[in-house]
Amino acid sequence: MITLTRVQFELACKHFIEQGVSLGNNVWQWQETKHSFMKVGYLEYRKTQVITEFTTSEETIELSEIELEENDSSRFDIGENGKILWNLEYHIVYSPTYEVPEIYVRGWSDEGSYLSDSQILQLTSAHLRDDIQKVKYGGGLTCMEHPILRTPFYRLHPCETASVLKEVIGEKELSLTSYIPTYINLIGPSVGLSLSLEYFV
After folding, report:
1. What's the whole-model pTM score?
2. Which end of the chain has a smaller Cβ tally under 10 Å, C or N?
């Protein structure tokens, strides 16, 4: 299965959260809200990224991650040795148009200002960054209104998601239990998001 219905997406997300809990890694949350006349949900993950070296967009930057404590998602501090902290929020939302998940991301600098698209692109490796920027229409990463929260986020456009999944999976069947981890590790690196290998053992 490459494309999903909304019900399948929600089941896949709940399987993923249960898997995280069983691994002792319950950093992903299922958020649900009433939208129009029905309840809709999405996956949410927050982390703080330490920028240990910041350079121009043509050069690479070195990054390391620190997971946020549950009640610590609003910190904006300069770390030791003047390191810069970026607070990042990722949402995985269902796209009814493409019938696949799509990633929304936003972030704040240590001073509390929103990160720009070029800063968000700094979260990924140079070769992926180049590929995203080659896509026309916003370079594949577009600032737009979150479909549920109605607030600004950067959206990683899902138009190629199904074909990327099909190319990697081939003729094999992608189950609901493996769908979200596979999706995150194939598509997420474009915006600095990935899972540990324990999700695939």
Report:
1. 0.79
2. C
Cα gap 111→84, rounded to integer Å? 9
Tokens 């094999």 -> residue = 172
Ordered DSSP codes for 133-159: HHSHHHHTEEEEE-TTT-SEEEEE--T
Is 68 within 8 Å of 89 (Cβ atoms)?
no
102 CB burial (10 A radius; 0-12, 13-18, 19+): buried
CA torsion sign for 137, 156, 160, 127 is positive
In a 13 Å sphere around the CA of 110, the CA atoms on its Cβ side amount to: 11
Q: How confident is the model at residue 33 (pLDDT cuts 50, 70, 90)?
A: confident
Tell me how far CA of residue 146 lies from CA of 8, 48, 77, 150, in angstroms: 21, 21, 27, 5
Q: Are 68 and 86 in contact (CB under 8 A)?
A: no
* Of 139 and 184, more confident: 184
The amino acid at 193: L
Residue with tokens 């330490």: 50
For 180-201, how does the pLDDT look when each residue is reduced to its tens digit (9 = 90+)? 999 999 888 888 888 988 888 7
